[in-house]
Predict the structure.
Amino acid sequence: MDKINLLVTISIIITFIALFLSFFLLTVKTAHKLSNRLFAFFLVLTAIDISANLGDLLAISLNVRVFISSFFFLQLPVFYLYVLSVCYSDFKLKPKHLLHGLTFLIANLILLPRFYAVDLESKISFLANISSMPEVQFNHILMHIQMAFYIVGAFMILRKAKKIYLENYAGASIESLNWLFQFTIALSAFYFIALVKNIFKFTQYPNISEGLKIGLLLFELIIIFWYLFKALNNPGLFRTIDSKLKLVQHIISEGKNTTQLAINEKEHNEELLKLQQYMVEKKPFLNPSLTIQDVSAAIEIPVRNLSLLINHTLEQHFYDFVNSYRIENAMEILKDDTKSKVTILEILYDVGFNSKSSFNTAFKKHTGYTPTVYRKTL
């Protein structure tokens, strides 16, 4: 009885928080409306899924209770679309994205003949023998296949987006991608535990499944709080990239096919010199949101050529290339005795960084020291 009360209590808390946060995301003024709406929808689906635990409390009919439990099939597809919307600034919902609801439709159609369309007595009999019902077994297999598909898909998107970002941008979005990667890992752990729970559900140890269910709810509560904390403390966290941008390896591959990749050595040296002079004289790296398109427009070198020059020829990501100039500038400030009272935080903003963690990481990568230790060694 205590376990049931605990399950209901946690379910009520998570449902309330999920709905409250979804309302906040839908009403807050932001440039990332689609991302907010998709994550709000994900939270609403989470709240609906959890509300199945409140069936006895809310006197929900068996049909509605089972239908609610099938909303799980929509959660990961919506999260997948959310990841796309966070990664790519030009992402838009299209009619083709309705295909992501196919498993939800299949799961319910399979239950139609022997559950939804029968009388109450047959429904009760169905639920009493639920572990042996082929429809339920099929839906659980479908559920786990879907989980693996969308989790792998989300990681692939994040991996590609990070590569594109490093090759074309020099701002702080890499932190948002890293955080979203961590968030996806947390969700992966959650769904893996759910998989284990479902396995025990069809064995002789259903009590283990119930115990894991309570643990999952607590884990879900922590994940939601984590997202809320991160979103509220970093309102500008998500800055997306253009999905039309190509990875350098793809540009090289296309160049081999079209025989337009190579430029002569003279042109190459001229472009490299032009780039280096621009970086030293104009100091564009002081702009924390600098992109490769900005540099391309300023020095009149096509983005494609500039990307190959930096990412392929110099064997540096644009992100690291720009940060190297920022670090060199920071080192000059740290060496200047007249600026000994300038704080590390002031320096990082002055040279184009907008995050202490990204500054420390880049500085240590470039010098082998943290900024504070480097200053002390001078």
DSSP finds 18 helices and no strands in the chain. The chain has two domains: 2-233, 254-377.
